[in-house]
Amino acid sequence: MSSKPIPTDFPVYAFPTTKELEEFFEREHKTAPAFYLKFAKKSSGIPSVTAAEAVETALCFGWIDGWVRGIDDTWWLVRYTPRRAKSIWSQKNVNTVAKLIETGRMRPAGLAAVEAAKADGRWDRAYAGPSTIAIPDDFAAALKEVPDASTFLETLNKSDRYAVLWRVQTATPTARPGKIETLVQMLAEKKKPTTFTKSTKKRKGEPKDGKIEEIEKRDVKKAATKPRRRGLRSDPDFNQ
């Protein structure tokens, strides 16, 4: 792949081991606004912390991963930031935190982020991933009342269907009934999630097209047709 420019808004680092990344977080997690972490692709042979190791370490200190970008044939880049006060949790990260607590790796900042999420309900509203998300009972009941909406939902591709269910799953208990009503109405009008954003403000924390898990899944299919080409998105370590 052709080289892409490296962002200059935040520092860029690369760490060969989890220990070195952990030491960096120990020093910087309270004061740094953000940073980019460079990952070496396995085919490069360069020692590098993996994406999974980096996410675990970030969660320990109350940080999360976000923006993803390929740089060249050797490196790819992920931006890390402190978790925002109202940031929505994924079920995957909730499960990861449980393991980190069990092994004693969580730091005070990470535990504080967990307690804040439990206190305001975000912990219980953690969203499932595309492969495990299901239609909630209350949404299913609403769809049953409007067959056109139910039928149109079944025609959506996996990405669009997930975008709909994500909105239901992450809504607060107070907002959820209204959210379901709005979604059912839009589906009945044969509007896809990309249309939803034109009439409803995109919420903070909503999954982005560049998220690691989505990129990995999209390019597994691509890798199958080009088995000799190893790049950013087919890298086995490219996991959220």
TrEMBL record:
Ranges where the record places region Disordered: 192-240
Basic and acidic residues: bias regions: 206-222
Pfam families: OmdA
Domain of life: Eukaryota
UniProt name for this protein: Bacteriocin-protection, YdeI or OmpD-Associated
